[in-house]
Amino acid sequence: MFSAFLSSFFISQVPHGRLDNALLMIYLSLVLPIYNEESCLKKSFDAINEYLSTLTKDYEIILVDDGSTDSTASLVKEIVQISPESRSLHNSKNQGKGNAVKRGVLDTAGKYIIFADMDLAVPVHFIGTCLKQLEAGTPMVIGSRHLPESSFKVREGPLRQFLGEVFRRFAQLSLGLRVSDITCGLKGLERTVAFDIFSRSRIDRWGYDAEIIFLAQKLGYTIQEVPVDWYHSFDSKVNVGVDSFRTFLEICRVYYYYLNKEYNC
């Protein structure tokens, strides 16, 4: 009777109906949002899988194909067929990186959830750095390129650097973000924190980074920054002009949603 009660209680606590995943909880879930990554997908996946296997923890890798128009989808199928640690989700059309990350996160089975960029602009061993902070009890960990110990190994072009700095300052000032780096692709969260934040998030594209940091602060979660090395990929999918303007509008939307209490926090 008591065991039945415990089982019933546990089931009732599973967020978002992810009962199948939560009952099969593993240690680490790595979410990889991907869009037209045929040039780096196989090499990056192999590097990631090889590194995670050294951690001696059970893990899963979730590949979220955000409506790729090249051969990415077929490559993902091949990877999933031969790699038991991996599985995939697919958007029939491009929805945006924020959408892909959210969909992946809410489909995870891990106690700890980390997401990263497929091009490995932040080298794979920093996943372990992020995980150690989560294991130490930090609710949310984000990679930063702007700490004294950080290093830009390969920098963006001057225009991208300028616009990135303008966006960083704008997001910090307008949303009160108390972190040095907003858009670094490496971030990690403890499971309950991840579900609490991503169940509220609404931004589908590049502004999602600022939104989830904003929500973490409003919900009272501690955010720990870790220094990373950065190797800019010149195969980036960001359209500097269009995406910069769109992202500024998304920051305004975050503030609007908050003022109208649409985040429930």
Q: What percentage of residues falls in helices of 4 or more residues?
A: 40-55%
Main sheet properties? 7 strands, mixed
How many beta strands in the DSSP annotation? 9
The shape is globular
β-strand percent reads 15-25%
- Reading the helices and strands in chain order gives HHEHEHEHEHEEHEHHEEH
Q: Care to describe what's here?
A:
The chain is of the alpha/beta class and 265 residues long. It has one domain: Spore Coat Polysaccharide Biosynthesis Protein SpsA, Chain A (Alpha-Beta Complex), CATH 3.90.550.10. The chain is built from ten helices and nine strands. The chain has a seven-stranded mixed β-sheet, with helices on both faces. β2 (59-66), α4 and β3 form a beta-alpha-beta unit.
Keywords:
265 residues, alpha/beta, Spore Coat Polysaccharide Biosynthesis Protein SpsA, Chain A, 7-stranded mixed β-sheet, two-stranded parallel sheet, 10 helices, 9 strands, 44% helix, disordered N terminus
Task: Give a quick precis of the structure.
By secondary structure, the protein is α/β, with parallel strands linked by helices.
Question: What is the fold's blueprint, element by element?
Answer:
Elements lengths: L1 H11 L6 H5 L2 E9 L6 H13 L5 E8 L5 H11 L3 E6 L5 H9 L4 E6 L10 H10 L4 E5 L6 E4 L3 H18 L11 E4 H8 L9 H11 L4 E5 L1 E3 L8 H20 L6
Helix pairs in contact: 7-10
